[in-house]
Predict the 3D structure of the following.
Amino acid sequence: MTETRRITDVATLKAMGHPLRVRLYGDLYMRGTATASQLAESLDDGTAVSLVSYHLRKLAEHGLIEEAPAESGRDGRERWWRPAQESLRIDGADFRGSPEGAAAHTALSRIIYEQRREHYLRFVEQRSGWSEAWQDASDASDFHARLTAGELKELTEELHAVIKRYAEQGRAAEAAGDSEGRETAVVHLYGFPFRP
């Protein structure tokens, strides 16, 4: 498994640009490994396993996911899947020269935003079911700053480094057996110019 994959070709961008594929990739990323049956069940909307399998194969054709190595105790009749990389990077600059690529990047960005929005709204609706500690730790902030493009890029890189450091600390703690009280924390960042 590679650490980070940067998607630079339009074909892979378009393959990823389907709402169900983005959802399946995200679910695999969270679980680590899963079968088509498990992923279909987690969708909780009646999506057929055969349709999930089709979309998983499309993601695999573009190297976004791969078959997970067999582990003892698993049913060998089902295919297990995992992300083929620890993270994906999709940079709009890679598609500026191509109208088709720019359109595919915009479409995928909208799908990703909608799914992130759904995640946050699910938390808002279920907030009272979380402990007070988790409710107090959650955040929804909005900042406005007068910056240059270079300053915004530097700010983004610093925020990414901080989040990555905390994620690595969490993985190391869990690997050492310290999993009590740990949940998956989702942090969405958007930084963009805006003219009111």
Summary: The mean pLDDT is 93. DSSP finds seven helices and five strands in the chain.
